[in-house]
Amino acid sequence: MAQIELKQVEKLFGEKYAVKPMDLTINNGEFVCLLGPSGCGKTTTLRMISGLETASGGTILLDGENVTWHHPSDRDIAFVFQLYALYPHMTVRDNIAFPLQAEGMNKDDIDTRVSEVVDILRIGHMLKYKPGKLSGGDQQRVALARALVRRPKAFLMDEPLGALDAELRETMRAEIKALHIAQNATTVYVTHDQVEAMALSDRIVVMSAAEVQQVGTPAEVYYDPANLFVAGFIGSPGMNVLKGQLDGDVVRFLGNNNTLPLPARYRIPLLTTLDADKNVIVGFRPEAGTINADGSMQGEVYAVDMHGAYKLLHVNLGDVPDTHEPTIVHLRTDRMASNPMGSQLRFTVDPAMMRFFDPKSGKAILPSQTDQTDRQPVEVLSTTAEGQA
Ligand code: ATP
Q1: Quick one: which atom of ligand 1 is closest to the CA of 34?
Q2: What does pTM read for this prediction?
Q3: DSSP H helical segments within the chain, as ranges?
Q4: What percent of the chain is modeled with pLDDT above 70?
């Protein structure tokens, strides 16, 4: 398996950037998702790595070798697409064997390799069928088997589960993860589904508008988003973000009497970053809020979503003075909690889970490294890939 390095790799279609200059190292054995909304440049990045698209600038290295100008077939990388791209007239066995036949491998070796991968993917019983007879999930398993059988240096997957229904997506997601752990194969996976990216990745590359917004583990992009885009894009719903103003030891929010205490570790970074008006954006995840009669935040329950294991409250904190738009935050509560629509509630926010953003740039303001008194260690959710710290 291989390390993939992108150095200032970019793609222009005419005058328009599909991918702005990008630096990224994908370590040997790592599973990296390119995540972002439609049109942000994920597929173009993947296609440049595969060689199906030529980079307009920059260098692509595969295990240290410059492959920027190599033909796709000379890169030893396997591509799995959303549409299974199986040959309909061939049996499952012949579909899987096809890349090895094309290389001129002898029949006995092909049989050994095919039987290895069909065991891994548990599709040995369908070798004689044509793809048209198979379910969507099984067709995608065959497509994965055809990629695996080559034992390529890396796998590139472009929304491979995009055409499957929700239940099958979840099953196949678990299978892809198990397969990755078993094979330890360097994998770059494109998706616009943040749940899929969080579940599968060692690291996530969050992209928007042709640009990388953040590269981090699922825990890092969730708990410590680099900017307001990542804060809103990751999580369902995204991070609550509120416009406020720093006032001594508290942040006061606009349009209501709500305040939150300023965590000590943010005091100096905020004072040195914010403008004279001390306007700031505060972020916190729905699970960071706790309903508490003594809480310094107050609002009216606007809607309640039952999610089975928990409830999600939509709470209106009051209208924004200029726009008269309601300021809605989401709070995650116990499934048995009773907070009917229209009721008032008070809540606190865990200071360890509060984040701050500069309203001018939208970038996160990082806490002081020397004062971590109210900093909670963030759980590491991902598996550690070889070569990562
Ligand atoms: P999606 O999830 O919808 O596939 P994406 O994030 O993968 O989106 P890309 O397909 O990489 O995005 O496209 C990035 C930008 O480049 C888009 O604005 C797209 O319209 C443009 N683009 C992609 N391919 C071409 C092309 N061959 N010619 C011109 N523009 C292109």
Answers
A1: 6
A2: 0.88
A3: 42-50, 92-102, 107-121, 136-148, 166-183, 194-200, 218-223, 228-233, 267-273
A4: 94
